Amino acid sequence: MDHAELREQLGAYALGALDPEDAEAVAAHVATCQECRAELADLRRVADGLPTALEAASPLRLHPSVKRRVVTAVQTPPRRRHFRPALWPAAAVAALLMFIGSTVYAVRLQLEEQDLAVAVRAETLHKLGETLSQRDQLRVLEVLSSNTTTQRSLRPVDPGQPAFHAAYGKLWTRGDDADVVVMVNRLPQPGPGQHYELWVTSNGRTVDCGPMHLDSEGFAMMLYRADRNGPSYQRAVVTLGGTPVLQWTG
Amino acid sequence: MIAVQDEELVARIAGGDLAAFAAIYDRYARRIHAWSAHVLGAHDAEDAMQEIFLRLWQHAGQFDGDRGSFTSWFTAVARYHLLHVLRQEGTRRRLTAAADIADVLAGATSTAPGPEETVSRREDSAALVRALALLPDEQRQAVVLAYFAGLSQSQIAEHLALPLGTVKKRIRLAMGKLRDALVPSRPEAGAPLEGPRGAARTAT
Question: What interface predicted TM-score (ipTM) does this complex get?
Answer without folding.
Answer: 0.85
